[in-house]
Every structure is written in C-alpha cells, then in structure tokens.
Amino acid sequence: MAGKEKVTGWSRHQHFGLRKEWLELYLQEQQEWELSGLLGNRQVQSFKVWLRTTGLQDKRGKETFSGGAFPGVWPGGNPALGVALGERGL
Asked: pTM of the full predicted structure?
C-alpha cells in the first residue's frame, strides 16, 4: 500500500513526549478532552497512543482498571508519579 506504511515504535507518538498538561486535561474532561480544542490533531493522535502505552486505556480506547484508579493518585498523591513526570520539590 503506497502511503499507508505501518507506524511502529516511538513514531506512533508523533514525536511528542507525554505531557503533564495533557494528563490534567484528560482528568478534567475524560469524555471530551479531544474535543476541547486545546490540542492539535497530531497531539490528539499522540496522546491517544500515550493513554494506551501507559495502560490508562485499552486498544479500543476504553478505560482500564489502572485508568480508573489514576485520578485517585493525581495530583501529588503519588510522589513516584511526580518524579516520573519530572516534577521537583515533592
């Protein structure tokens, strides 16, 4: 298929790293975060992949058990998570 190469590895993330602001938006508007207009189309694609990569959603975009527990540890409820996201002064 010309022009329809399979995207693998980190290219699936559209060259975007996971951003704290995206997670905050997701937690505020879990059902409509992608319609908020705050992310560009490639950022939306990237974040969808990140949600699967982190285990917050499954391959169909449905919330996982981990995804359901995540709001309970955000923000600041889990110092290890803050360190993983590069936060300082926890």
From this structure: 0.68
What is the domain extent for residue 18? 11-84
Q: Is 75 exposed, middle or buried (0-12, 13-18, 19+ CB in 10 A)?
A: middle
d(CA 15, CA 58): 21
Asked if the structure places residue 6 within a domain, the reply is: no
pLDDT digits (tens, 9 = 90+) for 26-71: 888 888 888 999 999 999 999 998 899 888 899 998 988 888 877 7
Q: Which of 60, 51, 5, 49 is nearest to 25 (CA)?
A: 51
- Give me the amino acid identity at 50: W
End-to-end CA distance of the chain: 50
